[in-house]
Amino acid sequence: MRRIAALFAGGGGERGIYRTTVRCDRCGEEIPVRVDLGRELTPTYGERTGAYHVRKGVVGSGMNRCFRTIDVRLTFDEEKRIVDREARGGSFVDEERQEKRN
């Protein structure tokens, strides 16, 4: 019975979760993006690189009266490690911070 309850309880840490943050090109809002690697990835077939991919439409809180959708596309390898990412309508915050350091 406890095993069944544990399935629905959730919250057991961050294992199997990929997190990043994107900034909207229009309003500048930073929006967190969360991907559950066990449930949201789609296997990649054919000649595309990577073993899995996910595509998300991310919208901010609307506090800036901006409801632009940022198209986030992520590609993962067989071990579910990130190999490529793209954001249309926004940019990845950690990439911007890395560029400023260099």
Query: How many alpha or pi helices?
Result: 2
Structural class: alpha+beta
Unreliable residue runs = 2-13
Q: Name the helicity range.
A: 10-25%
Q: H/E series, N to C?
A: HEEEEEEEH
- The tally of strands reads 7
Strand order of the largest sheet: 3-4-5-6
Average pLDDT level: 83
Termini separation: 53 Å
Main pleated-sheet profile? 4 strands, antiparallel
Rg on CA atoms, Å: 16 Å
Summed up, the domain count is 1
Portion in strands: 35-45%
Anisotropy-based shape: elongated
List keywords for this structure.
single chain; 102 residues; 3-stranded antiparallel beta sheet; 2 helices; 7 strands; elongated
In short:
With 102 residues, the protein is of the alpha+beta class. It has 2 helices and 7 strands. The chain has one domain.
Walkthrough of the structure:
With 102 residues, the protein is α+β, with helices and mostly antiparallel strands. It has one domain. Helix content is 17%, strand content 42%. The chain is built from two helices and seven strands, in the order αβββββββα. The chain has helices at 2-9, 93-101; strands at residues 17-24, 30-36, 42-43, 52-59, 69-76, 82-88, 90-92. It has a four-stranded antiparallel β-sheet, with no helix packed on it. A three-stranded antiparallel β-sheet has the order 2-1-7. A hairpin with an 8-residue loop joins β3 (42-43) and β4. It is elongated.
Strand and helix map with partners:
Blueprint: H1 2-9, E1 17-24, E2 30-36, E3 42-43, E4 52-59, E5 69-76, E6 82-88, E7 90-92, H2 93-101
Antiparallel strand pairs: 1-2, 1-7, 3-4, 4-5, 5-6
